[in-house]
Design a protein that fits this description.
Blueprint lengths: L2 E6 L4 E5 L4 H10 L6 E5 L5 H13 L2 E5 L2 E5 L10 H4 L8 H9 L1 E5 L12 H9 L3 E4 L4 E5 L8 E3 L5 H11 L5 E5 L5 H12 L3 E3 L6 E4 L8 E3 L4 H13 L3 E5 L10 H6 L3 E4 L3 E5 L8 E4 L11 H8 L5 E5 L10 H5 L4 E5 L3 E5 L8 E3 L3 H13 L2 E6 L1 H5 L5 H6 L4 E5 L1
Parallel strand pairs: 2-14, 3-13, 9-10, 17-18, 21-22
Antiparallel strand pairs: 1-22, 1-23, 3-5, 4-5, 6-8, 7-8, 10-12, 11-12, 14-16, 15-16, 18-20, 19-20
Bound molecules: ligand EPZ.
Length: 420
């Protein structure tokens, strides 16, 4: 079984370029189905979720070429609107194909998506908004969804019960070529939403307000494929910052959007890290010992991102004092608590929603298994902080969202290697 072997206690130093955003490139790749011709996507991270999504496009009939971080997608010959369950189960973002498949073919046959086991993760918001736009969905007993839209998608006024990222993305993908003007109220405001909209606008879509609470989309007849570069991954940037913080290091992150990090920077500053932001880079200088970060609550953007909860918890494990983290987005996103305790972390939880972390002077090395993508990166961070040799397994979770994590941290002076 593949595992990471980490000799902790080394200060991370140096520079690292942050990969393109996983949660941006996944909807943008799905959106290429709605555009005629050849799309070229730059800054594409080579992750398991990305290659799984490109496999779906090939299966639908698209031609896909990968060259480093550049992906070329010709959707001209796409003819199928059915995604088999094994590919749908690979990740959560496969549900984003619903909007673009129906926009392209007027139908879709998918199953419920997979993704990190951090909660039930229903898709009721997605199905409800598509129904308002003219889609009839039949849910088969085998978990298969058959969506039909014989008269074509029409605009609607959609009010999301919750600012769901995926539901906002599906609404945008369905609306860009629907008849009329669609209004999405209570839309998610994450930077990845604006990135998806910017790609579609470059293809000829008419979208106003992406990144705000209300998005207005005037449907157009066709979209022309384009060349586009996705934004940097703000969650991976915060992950590297957390690793520098727990090791008392100093690193520079290149090719980041400092404004996308605004929701997490106060947390790093509260811990005693000195942060300097420039146009496309951020430097982090950690103190000898982190301070506790007080109370942290996860919220939809521009609140503290739930995807940074685990890596900040790893920081709290070695901070001086008590940090309280409340997870308000997903009902099962503390699965990294048990494996963190194997490193000697002092963490109590209440109702699987509140974690009280009493920081320790140091952590001991341990063997631990990742439970999900962000929880797995938190274990790597704990191992980088711990004294001694640790082993982390369950790397398929980490590889879904972080490109060769061992190369990233060894490039910053971490003693980490991947063994089979
Ligand atoms: C996206 O997931 C991200 N994934 C997640 O990142 C991220 O944690 C999440 O947004 C919140 O920011 C991708 O972009 C691929 P939601 P998504 O719809 O779209 C409930 C990572 O580690 N809900 O905003 O699935 C849902 O259960 C991943 O990169 C419904 O009830 O998140 C959750 O409690 C993990 N019904 C809340 O809304 C629905 O139909 C937010 O979910 C949809 C969602």
């Amino acid at each position: 079984m593949e595992r990471l072997v980490i000799d902790g206690g080394k200060k991370l130093k140096g520079e690292i370029t942050v990969q393109g955003a996983k949660n941006s490139v996944l909807p943008v790749i799905a959106a290429t189905l709605a555009a005629d011709g050849v799309s070229v996507i730059h800054n594409c991270p080579m992750l398991c979720d990305v290659t799984a999504e490109l496999d779906i496009l090939r299966l639908l009939g698209c031609e896909v070429e990968i060259s480093g971080s550049c992906v070329r997608i010709d959707s001209t010959k796409a003819t199928r609107c059915e995604i088999p369950e094994n590919l749908m189960r690979e990740m959560r973002s496969s549900i984003i194909f619903l909007g673009s498949l129906i926009a392209r073919f007027g139908c879709a046959r998918v199953s419920v998506p997979g993704g990190c086991d951090i909660g039930e993760r229903p898709i009721d918001y997605h199905l409800a908004l598509l129904e308002k736009m003219g889609v009839r969905t039949v849910c088969g007993c085998d978990g298969c969804l058959r969506c039909e839209c014989p008269d074509g998608l029409h605009a609607a006024r959609i009010t999301l019960p919750y600012p769901s990222v995926g539901a906002t993305e599906n609404a945008i993908l369905a609306a860009v070529k629907a008849k009329g003007t669609t209004v999405i109220e209570n839309a998610a405001r994450e930077p990845e939403i604006a990135d998806l909209a910017d790609f579609l606008i470059k293809c000829g879509a008419r979208i106003d307000g992406a990144g705000e609470r209300t998005i207005i989309i005037e449907g157009v007849k066709r979209l022309e494929a384009c060349e586009y570069s996705v934004i940097p991954d703000r969650i991976i940037a915060a992950t590297f910052m957390s690793a520098a913080a727990v090791t008392g290091g100093k690193i520079t992150l290149r090719k980041v959007c400092p404004e996308h990090l605004a929701p997490v920077l106060p947390c790093f500053e509260a811990s005693g890290c000195a942060i300097k932001s420039y146009s496309d880079c951020v430097t982090v200088s950690a103190p000898k010992r982190l301070k506790s970060m007080g109370v942290i609550r996860t919220n939809p953007y521009p609140g503290f991102p739930t995807d940074c909860q685990a890596v900040v918890m790893a920081m709290a494990c070695v901070a001086d004092g008590v940090t309280v983290i409340t997870e308000r987005i997903f009902e099962n996103r503390f699965r990294h608590v048990a494996p963190l305790r194997r490193f000697g972390a002092q963490i109590e939880t209440e109702n699987n929603a509140v974690a009280i972390i009493e920081g320790k002077e140091s952590l001991n090395a341990a063997k631990a298994c990742s439970t999900d993508l962000r929880g797995g990166t938190a274990l790597v961070i704990a191992a980088l902080a711990a004294r001694g040799r640790s082993e982390i397994t369950g790397l398929h979770h980490i590889d879904r969202g972080c490109e060769r994590i061992e190369n990233c941290f060894s490039g910053l002076g971490g003693q980490i290697k991947r063994l089979d």
